[in-house]
């Protein structure tokens, strides 16, 4: 630790530097948290030039008025000055208490800041301002003498870059800030600008002034949904309206932001106007909370406007008031007053006069027509207006309905005195939420799943539903017009639109620190938690825990649910959980997840849930445990043939292990893990990555000098080579690996090496050698000392040996032997029940039925295997099953169906990198294409397949391609006959050498027919 002043070394416990005597600044950040805020940066342009020639006292005197003006503007709109910079400042809006209006407030503060500095009358003092909305880390920095609220993160740098780019007395804002404040503030788009430190040009806007639109008009202009439901609330409002003839009625609608208060009251007010009522309405503004009588001024303007529209009234209603009350109204409306009597009134007397005048003015309007006095967003009312509104709500006048709305964050005390009826607004029910979504997205049933997800995600809060849909449309996930939108790509996460981040954060700030901590633990646990687990992790006294849970349930943040699971709790909607979780800094998150992990590990009930343990270990950054549980979750996924899931967990385990200290033991674990993961990667069709795993394992084995693990890694690489490389390469490495594995004394890896080599011989067209090697491997695996390497079992490896052996015998025409091996493979697959084993058995079963000239039976077996492979993500088998299914259709004369599935097989084989499957599907696709009349395309495909097979050493496939060329070439000319005869003779030569007797017989029969036809006299 070092002194901030002289950089001398100091002890952690020191309060003062022993060298220079400076107090030690210590960062205290137990309350550090992530916040979504708007940052304001402002400075005086060319301040250095202004004060360069001045004495220090004069320099301070020159700049201080501008700094004071800046501070005042920030504080007027609820911002906090987080740092003063000598000639400017940095401020934050929306922290430490969240405010969903942080962006409009910051814009208004910036406008006021520029106005105040200009008003100083010093032409040399010109300012520039930059604004940006984004996530920051907020924390307190404490020293011996002060505390400062600091913010950190990239967001503040963008605000600073915008400030430095701005012109004199101009305010530049980011796109994020503009999107949040649009409607409340007017902007001009300046285009995309290159900002220092940012890779790509960013959109930049200039503030042109404050908008005169009310908050309701801004929301209404953005709204894309229709009014739905609210039957109960509307009935309560109508009941109150019907009672006004007997006396004033006051109704308070209370509910969280976005619940639909404004929508309801304006819909209701329009209904009243249609029935002859007069509407006097006003909104309390978050921008004017610090301005005395700001709400009352707008209310009186609305009253006078309503009176002016009354044709039966000729005179201004103010003329009916006492003189002192006229002056009171003028004072609120900022009309100049030259009246000594008014000037002499004490402040409290003026306040009383203003209240009495307002009541008299409203009563004057009411006498002529039933009136609804609508005052919205009471939570933002200024203190002076609040006193007057209390008096208005208590008027004992008939034909007056006072309709108020507010959020549940502190009800005024006068609400009870005026006997207001309180209506608590609730979210929509599911039917109404779906009706709202049908209006926005359209009635298409194809988006039914998305609609249900949105309902669950938003808990039917209207604003949240609308903003989530808007976010999906803006991102291009939904295309079209409102009311007719189409989902064009899958939706992984619905996310939280920035427009409602602050709304939710403000709700969270209403709970106590202890309740917030409990909510954070619940957020880390997931969408649903149990009281038992919360009790264990939070370690709170039972009475405190229950008090917190009751408060959170009452606030509808974490609610108790009816469930068979005892003491179940869940978040009211997913967005609350996400905002809660995102508000935690990394250090806090890690600590909570570590506590959860320890609690879960101590509970035997969670022993069979390695996926959950892995999640918390990873989030806790306990890398050793993340490796252990990740491997456990991967093994569990492998057991149910969920290869894609297994790959995800293996990757977590691999990454976690590599974050632990380097030791020989760690490297051994890393090698073993890569070898264990091989089947997950190959099974899910990620063959190239499996090959890379083998190479990396081999490199690490060399690094620690482990010969046994090197041989195992080479065996793994050899297996991947069968799919991703050429047969020549696969045979060379396969033979070397079998020799090394045989001498290494590890029978499991030897058995796998022999299977891999048998498969390599098959791909090379060396069927006799393939049969011998597969028989050797099978004998080892069927014996009493059967052994398999890590990541598989002797039974599963035996299924593969029987599968490959049956296919080899089928290709050689030895159908009895093939059938015996197929029965063995099917029996083992039935016994294990593993989808991978069943798919393997289906593959060889389809081959056998094709060899037995029963394509219909082959198709039935292959279709079942194909569906199973797709269902479980066993992608390695998908192209070969599809290919042989296409062959079965072809042999049944279903040419169009054959062409479709063979084309799919070829594309899937290319995607996987399965070279032999690409060639085989191309050969039979050509035959199907020929049957459908496109001779030229068929010939081109066969010629390309034959050349590729010859170049890469797939001699068996070369023979099949040659035979196919002979089949599709019409013997209409001597040149074509020559081509056919050459192709058949070449195919016969290869088939004869390889032992592919069925192909040999077909080629010889065709050749004999061609020669016999040529010998006939013309």
TrEMBL record:
PANTHER family documented for this protein: GUANYLATE CYCLASE DOMAIN-CONTAINING PROTEIN, TESTICULAR SOLUBLE ADENYLYL CYCLASE
Lineage start: Bacteria, Pseudomonadati, Pseudomonadota, Alphaproteobacteria, Hyphomicrobiales
Species in which this protein is naturally found: Bradyrhizobium campsiandrae
Keywords: ATP-binding, Nucleotide-binding
Stored CDD domains: CHD
Name of the protein described by the UniProt record: AAA family ATPase
Guanylate cyclase domain span: 38-163
Coiled-coil parts of chain: none
KW Nucleotide-binding (keyword) present: yes
PROSITE patterns recorded: GUANYLATE_CYCLASE_2
InterPro entries: A/G_cyclase, AAA_16, Nucleotide_cyclase, P-loop_NTPase, TPR-like_helical_dom_sf
């Amino acid at each position: 630790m070092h002194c901030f002043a002289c950089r001398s070394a100091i002890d952690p416990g020191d309060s003062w530097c022993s060298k220079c005597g400076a107090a030690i600044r210590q960062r205290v950040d137990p309350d550090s948290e992530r916040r979504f805020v708007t940052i304001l940066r402002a400075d005086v342009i060319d301040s250095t030039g202004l004060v360069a020639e001045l004495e220090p006292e004069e320099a301070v005197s020159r700049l201080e008025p501008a700094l004071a003006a800046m501070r005042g503007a920030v504080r007027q709109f609820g911002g906090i000055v987080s740092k003063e910079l000598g000639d400017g400042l940095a401020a934050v809006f929306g922290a430490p208490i969240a405010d969903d209006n942080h962006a409009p407030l910051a814009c208004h503060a910036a406008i006021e800041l520029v106005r105040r500095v200009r008003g100083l009358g010093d032409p040399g003092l010109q300012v520039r301002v930059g604004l940006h909305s984004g996530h920051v880390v907020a924390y307190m920095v404490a020293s011996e003498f002060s505390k400062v609220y600091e913010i950190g993160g990239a967001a503040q740098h963008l605000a600073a870059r915008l400030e430095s780019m701005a012109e004199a007395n101009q305010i530049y804002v980011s796109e994020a800030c503009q999107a949040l404040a649009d409607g409340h503030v007017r902007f001009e788009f300046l285009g995309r600008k290159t900002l220092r430190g940012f890779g790509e040009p960013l959109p930049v806007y200039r503030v042109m002034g404050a908008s005169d639109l009310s908050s309701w008009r801004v929301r209404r202009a953005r709204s894309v949904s229709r009014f739905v439901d609210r039957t109960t609330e509307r009935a309560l409002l109508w009941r109150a309206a019907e009672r006004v003839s007997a006396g004033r009625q006051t109704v308070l609608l209370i509910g969280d932001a976005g619940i639909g208060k404004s929508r309801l009251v304006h819909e209701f007010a329009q209904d009243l106007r249609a029935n002859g009522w007069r509407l006097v309405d006003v909104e309390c503004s978050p921008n004017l909370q610090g301005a005395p009588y700001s709400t009352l001024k707008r209310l009186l303007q609305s009253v006078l406007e309503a009176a002016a529209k009354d044709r039966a009234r000729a005179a201004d209603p103010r003329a009916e008031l006492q003189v002192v009350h006229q002056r009171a109204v003028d004072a609120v409306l900022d009309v100049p007053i030259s009246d000594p009597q008014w000037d002499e009134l004490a402040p409290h007397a003026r306040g009383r006069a203003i209240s009495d005048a307002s009541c008299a003015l409203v009563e004057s309007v009411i006498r002529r027509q039933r009136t609804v006095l609508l005052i919205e967003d009471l939570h933002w009312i200024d203190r002076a207006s609040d006193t007057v509104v209390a008096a208005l709500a208590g008027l004992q006048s008939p034909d007056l309905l006072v309709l108020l709305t507010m959020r549940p964050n502190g009800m005024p005390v006068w609400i009870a005195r005026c006997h207001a009826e309180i209506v608590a607004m609730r979210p929509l029910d599911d039917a109404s939420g779906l009706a709202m979504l049908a209006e926005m997205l359209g009635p298409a049933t194809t988006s039914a799943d998305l609609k249900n997800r949105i309902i669950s995600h938003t808990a039917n809060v209207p604003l949240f539903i609308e903003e989530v849909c808007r976010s999906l449309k803006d991102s291009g996930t939904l295309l079209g017009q409102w009311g007719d939108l189409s989902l064009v790509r899958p939706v992984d996460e619905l996310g939280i639109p920035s427009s409602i981040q602050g709304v939710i954060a403000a709700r969270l700030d209403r709970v106590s620190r202890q309740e917030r901590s409990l909510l954070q633990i619940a957020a880390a646990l997931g969408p649903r938690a149990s009281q038992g687990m919360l009790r264990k992790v939070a370690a709170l006294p039972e009475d405190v825990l229950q008090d917190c849970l009751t408060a959170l349930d009452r606030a509808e943040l974490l609610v108790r649910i009816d469930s068979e699971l005892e003491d179940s709790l869940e978040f009211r909607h997913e967005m609350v959980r996400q905002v809660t979780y995102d508000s935690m800094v990394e250090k806090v998150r890690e600590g909570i997840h570590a506590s959860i992990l320890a609690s879960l590990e101590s509970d035997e009930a969670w022993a069979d849930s390695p996926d959950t343990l892995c999640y918390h270990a990873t989030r806790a950054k306990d890398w050793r445990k993340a490796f252990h549980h990740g491997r456990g979750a991967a093994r569990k996924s492998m057991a149910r043939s969920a290869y894609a899931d297994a790959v995800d967990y293996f990757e977590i385990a691999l990454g976690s292990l590599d974050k632990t200290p380097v030791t020989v033991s760690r490297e051994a674990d890393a090698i073993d893990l890569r070898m264990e993961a091989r089947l997950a990667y190959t099974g899910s069709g990620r063959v190239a990555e499996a090959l890379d795993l083998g190479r990396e394992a081999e490199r690490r084995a060399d690094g620690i000098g482990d010969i046994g693990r090197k041989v195992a890694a080479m065996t793994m690489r050899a297996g991947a080579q069968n799919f991703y490389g050429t047969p020549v390469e696969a045979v060379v490495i396969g033979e070397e690996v079998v020799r090394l594995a045989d001498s290494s004394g590890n029978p499991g890896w030897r058995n796998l090496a022999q299977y891999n080599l048998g498969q390599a011989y098959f791909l090379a067209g060396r069927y006799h050698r393939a049969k011998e090697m597969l028989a050797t491997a099978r004998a080892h695996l069927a014996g009493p000392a059967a052994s398999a390497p890590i990541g598989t079992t002797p039974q599963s490896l035996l299924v593969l040996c029987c599968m490959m052996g049956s296919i080899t015998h089928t290709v050689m025409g030895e159908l009895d032997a093939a059938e015996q091996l197929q029965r063995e493979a099917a029996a083992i697959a039935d016994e294990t029940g593993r989808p991978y084993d069943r798919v393997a058995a289906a593959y060889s079963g389809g081959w056998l039925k094709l060899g037995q000239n029963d394509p219909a039976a082959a198709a039935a077996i292959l279709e079942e295997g194909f569906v199973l492979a797709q269902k479980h993500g066993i992608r390695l088998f998908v192209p070969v099953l599809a290919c042989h299914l296409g062959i079965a259709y072809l042999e049944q004369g279903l040419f169009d169906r054959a062409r479709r599935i063979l084309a799919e097989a070829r594309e899937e084989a290319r995607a996987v990198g399965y070279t032999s499957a690409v060639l085989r599907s191309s050969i039979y696709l050509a035959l199907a294409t020929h049957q459908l009349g496109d001779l030229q395309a068929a010939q081109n495909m066969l010629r390309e397949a034959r050349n590729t097979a010859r170049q890469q050493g797939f001699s068996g496939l070369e023979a099949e391609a040659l035979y196919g060329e002979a089949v599709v070439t019409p013997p209409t000319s001597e040149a074509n006959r020559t081509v056919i005869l050459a192709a058949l003779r070449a195919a016969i030569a290869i088939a004869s050498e390889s032992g592919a007797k069925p192909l040999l017989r077909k080629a010889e029969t065709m050749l004999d027919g061609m020669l016999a036809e040529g010998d006939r006299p013309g």
